[in-house]
Amino acid sequence: MSTTTPTALVPLTTRDAETLIAAARRAAEDAGVTVSVTVLDAGGHLLAFRRDDRAVLISGETSTRKAYTALQLNAPTADLVKPDGPFHSLPTALDKPLLFIAGGIPVHRDGRLVGAIGVGGGAPEQDHGFATAAVDALAVIDR
Q1: What is the mean pLDDT of residues 70-95?
Q2: Beta bridge partners of residue 80, listed in sequence order
Q3: What are the percentages of helix, strand and coil residues in the chain, rounded to 5?
Q4: Residue 132 backbone phi and psi in degrees, to 5
Q5: What is the tens place of the pLDDT at every residue in 102-130?
Q6: Taking Cα atoms as reference points, which of 30, 24, 75 lies closest to residue 48?
Q7: pTM of the complete model beyond 0.85
Q8: Is 16 left (phi over 0), alpha (psi -120 to 50) or beta?
């Protein structure tokens, strides 16, 4: 009888978080936008945070809530902002409020949720693009 040992899940590391932040900031700089970027681990704990000097102050809070929302619902926040979306009016009993604004994306490794990134400071569709660029950059390294 053959048994297969499941591969161990490699958690999101500080180095991964730095890669995500650098890639998101590069994409934002290329667009001429100042942003805040938050990376959370699978438990919802802050792994890394960076706010550009001229980013609006509230972007720090929005980037964190976007990451938290993407993590808790395991979905990009851009997919959740539609008025007819499945979670649009979800009340929350969580200790942190969810934020249904584009810019949060869950991070997966080997098909499993390992964390999330949130970007705030640009228009929602820009923030979504910056977060997507970051996740894509990490995927290249993971290959």
Answers
A1: 74
A2: none
A3: 40, 20, 45
A4: -65, -45
A5: 999 999 999 999 999 999 999 999 999 99
A6: 24
A7: yes
A8: alpha
